[in-house]
Design a protein that fits this description.
This protein is mainly β. The chain is built from two helices and 40 strands. A four-stranded antiparallel sheet has the order 1-2-3-4, with no helix packed on it. A four-stranded antiparallel sheet has the order 5-6-7-8, with no helix packed on it. Strand 18 and strand 19 form a beta hairpin. The longest helix has 12 residues.
């Protein structure tokens, strides 16, 4: 199914124009004058974050307040904007954290450092990884070959090529012994040992036996699993909600999931009930409560209950944005509303999805922006 993506026509037009029309000396002087007096002294000026602005000059970085007063001197070789009153900085090849007063709160001694997630951050020294808390305490020893961000209070770690999990107290809830593992989701972590998959609970115990040939992580309390080349769905207790009988099944989003059988797609609810028949060649994702489908090379839309609110009849379509969807018929484009009514005539050579500015449409001779009812609002002739 062909997809067109929205873009800011005004921005694109300006960029193209500026490429072919470089600054004249007068324009360059005017552009410099547009900077405030304190901004002009720096090579780069960032946006305010936590009342601090990242600035750089001659290869050194520091931070000003929102009035341009230099609060943290230009002493760092690299820096990032503040997040939650702290910022990552680098001196030489080492990284650490400072607070908004410029005080070093995590020593600048690490070979790599990440932003905080769930109040913990990953750090690297040499080729080993561990975790720090917000005070800089090493809550998980820097001894692992790989670690991930914390998720649901757990960190996925690798040691000697095997995977396990640690908690926020640094305890190995599940010692590294799995061939593969994935971060926790819905209080379950998918793990593999040998060729079989199962799921751990938050205590590191096997909540769902390792009996499956493949599996996806839990989403909305459901996980797709495969056994003997057939897919189905289980809940967090391991109960089979959707029988293992399909070619494929996908993650639940908004209580709905795609299933595949005999190269056709349908939709089920979280109890396994089929709400859209398995008869479509393609099904996309829900937008504004509707999902695009393809059947016999024609496109239409289903609602959340699987009803064909727009029967497959178009040559191509885009998902709904701002209650409008672009549709194509006989090499021309227009727009429909969620009721399937063609509110913008199918007459344009090309169109782009609606955004805050409206929708850009292209005719054989020019292009312009239209509003929700098709009236020209920019670029009109």
């Amino acid at each position: 199914m062909k997809r067109l993506y929205s873009f800011n026509f005004f921005l694109l037009f300006s960029l193209v124009l500026s490429f072919f029309m470089p600054y004249t000396p007068d324009q360059k002087e005017k552009a410099d004058d547009d900077k405030t007096s304190w901004e002009a002294q720096y090579d780069s000026v960032g946006n305010p974050h936590c009342l601090r602005i990242l600035v750089s000059k001659s290869g050194k970085s520091g931070f000003t307040d929102t009035n341009g007063r230099l609060i943290i001197p230009l002493q760092y070789d690299e820096g990032y904007s503040f997040i939650r009153d702290r910022a990552v900085v680098r001196i030489g090849k080492k990284w650490g954290y400072i607070n908004i007063a410029g005080k070093v709160i995590i020593p600048i001694k690490y070979d790599d450092i990440y932003t905080f997630t769930e109040y913990y951050c990953r750090v690297q020294m040499g080729d080993k990884w561990g975790y720090l808390d917000t005070l800089g305490h090493e809550i998980v020893p820097i001894k692992y070959e790989e670690v991930t961000d914390f998720r649901e209070g757990m960190g996925l770690v690798r040691l000697y090529g095997l995977y396990g999990f640690v908690d926020f107290k640094g305890r190995e809830v599940a010692r590294p012994k799995y061939f593969n593992a994935f971060v926790y989701s819905n209080h379950r972590a998918q793990v593999r040992k040998g060729s079989k998959f199962g799921f751990l609970d938050r205590q590191g115990n096997m909540a769902i036996p390792m009996i499956y040939d493949s599996a996806y992580s839990f989403c909305e309390g459901r996980a797709s699993v495969r056994l003997d080349n057939k897919w189905g769905v289980i809940d967090t207790a391991g109960n089979i909600i959707v029988p293992l009988q399909y070619e494929d099944s996908y993650d639940f989003v908004g209580g709905r999931a795609l299933i595949k059988q005999n190269h056709k797609y349908g939709i089920i609810d979280r109890n396994g009930k089929i709400i859209a028949p398995i008869k479509y060649d393609e099904i996309s994702e829900f937008h504004d409560g509707l999902v695009a489908v393809v059947k016999n090379h024609k496109c239409g839309f289903l609602d959340i209950n699987g009803v064909e609110v727009v029967p497959p009849q178009y040559d191509s379509e885009n998902s709904f944005h701002f209650n409008r969807a672009a549709v194509k018929k006989n090499d021309r484009w227009g727009f429909i509303n969620p009721l399937g009514e063609e509110i913008i005539p199918i007459q344009y050579k090309r169109v782009y999805n609606y955004s805050d500015e409206g929708a850009c449409v292209i005719t054989d001779r020019d292009s312009f922006y239209i509003d929700q009812i098709g009236q020209c609002i920019f670029g009109c002739r």
